[in-house]
Design brief:
The chain is mostly beta strands. The chain has 2 domains: 22-218, Pectate Lyase C-like (3 Solenoid); 222-397, Pectate Lyase C-like, CATH 2.160.20. Helices cover 10% and strands 51% of the residues. It has 3 helices and 30 strands. The chain has helices at 2-19, 45-57, 132-139; strands spanning 27-30, 39-43, 62-66, 70-72, 76-79, 87-91, 94-96, 110-115, 120-123, 126-128, 150-155, 158-163, 166-168, 175-178, 181-191, 202-205, 208-218, 224-226, 230-240, 246-251, 262-273, 277-284, 290-305, 307-315, 329-343, 347-352, 359-371, 374-375, 377-381, 383-392. Strand 27 (359-371) and strand 28 form a beta hairpin. It is elongated, with a radius of gyration of 22 Å. The termini are far apart. 46% of the residues are buried. Bound molecules: 2-acetamido-2-deoxy-beta-D-glucopyranose. 2-acetamido-2-deoxy-beta-D-glucopyranose is lined by residues 232, 234, 264, 266. Its EC number is 3.2.1.67. Keywords: Cell wall, Cell wall biogenesis/degradation, Glycosidase, Hydrolase, Secreted, Signal. Residues 1-25 form the signal peptide.
């Protein structure tokens, strides 16, 4: 049914544009009509941007339609505000980035970005970030490799939906939600090599009311990273692995924010397979203040995960600037409920909190984690809380 409708839009959009009154009905802008070429080589960035500006200028709901085929887009920033608040990007095909990271667009931190929009949704499609050459550069230890661009960024936007999108081989993060409000991410499929550097699946920062439901994320860095300023986040039915797991933080790096806080996060019904971490909270050993509170981790299945449950307040990669410093981020009201499966290391539960700001109100209920068919261990430093129900490893709270 859906394909029938899109096919008829495909054929009749010109007629629709000519005859339908813009005030009363939705219009579709097919990128082919704006000069896009589905040959995987011709740069279609200009055509995508022209289709976008037509949709954005429309006073009635509008669809930008990307049909089947491979469209090379060097870089595109879709800016709002728009005249309507119902713009759909309906994608059947694949959008390809350049694999040449040294080109001019390679210097940008963003490949496809939406800024200052309200009511934009993306439905379907595949984004191919072409990251493998940049990963190889980074993996070779060459310090002059560029950072690379995140594949899809929403910035300063509200009422955003991403549904049924596949994102592969990003150069940097796959999806970034920055300064947004009310974002629904559904049924996304994210894939990059397990050793690809910095290819986080979904990164959030300064955003509230974000739902991520039904995601399949296989990547080389965090599956989902929850950055400073995140509130009211709901994560449900997410598969992670390979990768670094779901991480709140790192916080306290000092990225120019006065305070780095995260509150009201629910992470429910997750599976982690072969990841370095499962459910992680990490803060730098630094004096940047902040809080992490009201977090619920519920119903998680771990399969051979190195650190299934971990709070690390002494995060200090490269050991520069932070050794010996205590984190000033206060962690409280964190609940772990029904977490089961296998740990790849003897310590399945590790709470390494800040000596000057101990974790408070950490609660554990029904934990069943084993290590090589033996009892796993828990480790507690500067943490207060309570435990109930079945507990393996035994609680150290
Ligand atoms: C927490 O966030 C959820 C959405 O994930 C929201 O429905 C709920 O009202 C929030 N709770 C509080 C106390 O703000």
């Amino acid at each position: 049914m859906a394909s029938l409708i899109t096919t008829s839009f495909f054929f009749f959009h010109t007629i629709a544009l000519l005859f339908f009154s813009p005030a009363s009905s939705a219009v579709t802008y097919n990128v082919l009509s704006f000069g896009a070429r589905p040959d995987g080589r011709t740069d279609s960035a200009g055509a995508f941007l022209r289709a976008w500006s037509s949709a954005c200028r429309s006073r009635s709901p509008a669809t930008v339609y990307v049909p089947a085929g491979k469209f090379f887009v060097s870089k595109a920033t879709f800016n709002g505000p728009c005249r309507n608040s119902q713009i759909k990007f309906s994608i059947q095909g694949t959008i390809l980035a350049s694999s040449d990271y040294s080109s001019s667009s390679g210097a940008s931190k963003e490949w496809l970005a939406f800024n200052n929009v309200n009511g934009v949704s993306i439905a379907g499609g595949t984004l191919d970030g072409g990251g493998s050459r940049l990963w190889a550069c980074k993996l070779s230890g060459n310090r002059r490799c560029p950072t690379g661009a995140s594949s899809l960024t929403f910035g300063n936007s509200k009422n955003v939906a991403i549904d049924g999108l596949t994102s592969i081989n990003s150069k940097l993060f796959h999806i970034v939600i920055l300064r947004c409000e009310n974002v629904k991410v559904r049924r996304v499929n994210i894939q990059a090599a397990g050793n690809s550097p910095n290819t986080d699946g979904i990164h959030l920062q300064m955003s509230s009311s974000v739902d991520i439901v039904q995601a399949n994320i296989r990547t080389g860095d965090d599956c989902i990273s929850v950055g400073p300023g995140t509130a009211h986040l709901w994560i449900e039915r997410v598969f992670c692995g390979p990768g670094h797991g779901i991480s709140i933080g790192s916080l306290g790096k000092g990225q120019g924010f006065q305070e780095e806080s995260v509150r009201n996060v629910t992470v429910k019904t997750t599976t982690f397979s072969g990841t370095t971490n499962g459910l992680r909270i990490k803060t730098w050993g630094s004096n940047i203040p902040g809080q992490v509170r009201q977090v619920v981790f519920e119903d998680a299945l771990m399969k051979n995960v190195q650190n299934p449950i971990i709070i690390d307040q002494n995060y200090c990669p490269g050991n520069s600037g932070c050794p010996g410093k205590n984190s000033a981020i206060r962690i409280s009201q964190v609940k772990y409920k029904n977490v089961r499966g296998t740990s790849a290391t003897p310590v399945a539960v590790s709470f390494d909190c800040s000596p000057s700001n101990p974790c408070r109100g950490i609660s554990m209920q029904d934990i069943k984690l084993s290590y090589q068919n033996q009892q796993a261990q828990s480790s507690c430093k500067f943490v207060n809380g309570d435990a109930s129900g079945f507990l393996a490893p035994p609680s150290c709270l």
